[in-house]
Predict the structure.
Amino acid sequence: MVVLFGIGVYCVRHQRDLKTYLLADQNVHWLVVAISVLAALFSGITYLGAPAETFFHDLRYVWVLLSFLIATPVTTVVFLPFRQLKPVYCLRNLQRRFDRRLRWIASGLFITRVTFYLGLAIYAPALVVMEDHRLDAVDGGVVDGG
């Protein structure tokens, strides 16, 4: 953790403003963005569930993985070029296009979704750790990172 913190402190020195931090001066290749988006979609649930899904339902799960590999570059290339608006926040663009109420609704729905997802993404691997090491739920969550 100390090494990661040190890398973060070192990299922050090169950041001039929020736009540089969030958008990397908009000079990142689309393939790097696609890989980053794809990596963000995976969690402990994916690594635990994919082999089980494949075991119980043959190789039908390959189509799900294939859809990720197709949809991520398409989304990155087709739907993200609205960056001509120079967005820093997508919610700010919602407010510009519609009104402030929609921005608040979208923000609230996003926070709710991420809260439930993160709880599940931490709890599911914690169950595996708990069963594997004969720990209680709190210890399993601590070992898993929750």
The chain has two domains: 1-85, 89-146. The first helix runs from residue 2 to 12.
